[in-house]
Amino acid sequence: MNLLIIYVLNIALDRDSSDIDPKSKRTDLEVLYKPSDYVNEQENLGNDEVIPSLPSLLVPKQADLMEEIKRISKNFNIWDMIKLFVHRPSEYKDAFVKEIEASFHSIYFGEISIIMRKFGLPPNPYFYAINSVLFSKENLDAFHLKYCFNVRSIIREILCTKSQRQLKKINEIFIEESRGGLLALVPNDRSVYKREFINQLLTVQRSTSMYFDINDSFLMDFKLYTDHNYYKKNKEKFIRIFATASYYQIRKICHEYQKRFNKTLPSSISKGRDSFLKKCAKTICEYAINSHKYYAKLLRKAASHRDMQRIIRIVTSRSEIDLTTIFREYRNMYSFQYIKSIENAFFDHIEIYTDIILPLLGLEKGTRL
After folding, report:
1. Angle between helical axes of 125-134 and 137-147 (0-180°, round to 10)
2. Domain final residue, candidates 248, 269, 286
3. Which class for 365: exposed (0-12), middle (13-18), buried (19 or more C-beta within 10 A)?
4. Which DSSP helix (H) or strand (E) runs through 305?
5. Which of 100, 208, 218, 362 matches a 20 to 30 Å C-alpha distance to 61?
6. CB-side exposure of 301: number of CA atoms within 13 Å?
């Protein structure tokens, strides 16, 4: 099976570009009118410091689903389908694949399904990139959790930035397709607090409150971050704050902490033993303060380490939400060296960069960052 999958991938990539229907090269593209609804509604609520979220996905003004299926299926090549999908919203892609499954069984089962979420496949960037374009929303997050090499950082990102409703759905998908839910991905140790924290994220609805009282003894207990012994004795309180307080309230806590101590709360949380629980709290703080800068920092880290998977994840998961805004922050925050490093990360897999990353960033094919 693995050899067959690799064969299909190689055939797709070796195909000469002259085989592609020139009509598939659309020039009448516009920014996605309706951003994806797969967003945490609270992430920037009440945050005046954040600029509006803008998706980067460019889509045609008109697209005929059945006509495109007919054209693609004539001489099917999965890479051609992926190049089409980087200019289509998630609902369109889902409908496209469902129709292929219903009407073109040999194509679906012979060339598409054999590549989708297959365990045991040797590390292959094209497999990862193809699936990252095929899937969307909760299914995409579940895929990344199953196949990303650096799963610890991915699970922190997903646990700390998704709503309880979204996490519940991701957990259901994960349970259905593999043994155990999201808890099974957490490093296996005896930490009761770690499991309790994740359990609260999965089962307790985070507050939506935009009320903040500077004299609130529960939320404003700064000893949790300045006194390690106090933190150890009050981990339950620490968990309740970061698992249930609204992002608005956490943002206010961060601002008040910086005013009082002249340093950021994430930097104070990181002091001492940087446990999974503390890393999650730090992630929640950074995300609550400014979600766009949070993802821009992730993108910089991925680019500087030439982490293709992480770049693919950020680009594919945020293109229908706010990737234009994230990339603007990225360019404002970092030098050209870091911008260029996105391209450099794909030096040995340039097709992924030109056919997936650039289009999803909203840039024309052949453009360089």
Report:
1. 160
2. 286
3. exposed
4. none
5. 100
6. 11
Pairwise CA distance, residues 3 & 30, whole Å? 39
- Nearest C-alpha neighbor of 301 from the set 265, 347, 333: 333
- Is residue 55 domain-resident? yes
User: What does the alpha-carbon distance between residue 195 and residue 39 come to, in Å, rounded to a whole number?
Assistant: 25
Pair of tokens at residue 350: 């340039």
**Cβ atoms of 47 and 290 closer than 8 Å:** yes
Average pLDDT per consecutive 10 residues, the chain (369 residues; last block may be shorter): 47 45 54 82 77 90 92 94 95 95 94 75 80 93 81 84 92 79 70 86 90 84 91 93 94 94 91 80 94 94 90 94 92 78 90 93 63
Q: Would you say 248 and 45 are in contact if contact means Cβ atoms under 8 Å apart?
A: yes
208 part of a folded domain: yes
Looking at the domain assignment, is residue 8 inside a domain? Answer: no
The answer to whether 28 touches 138, Cβ cutoff 8 Å, is no
What pTM value is reported for the model?
0.88
Report the amino acid identity of residue 56: S
**Cβ atoms of 32 and 59 closer than 8 Å:** yes
Could you tell me which of 57, 89, 72 has the C-alpha nearest to residue 23? 72
pLDDT at residue number 23: 41
Domain span at residue 225 reads 182-286
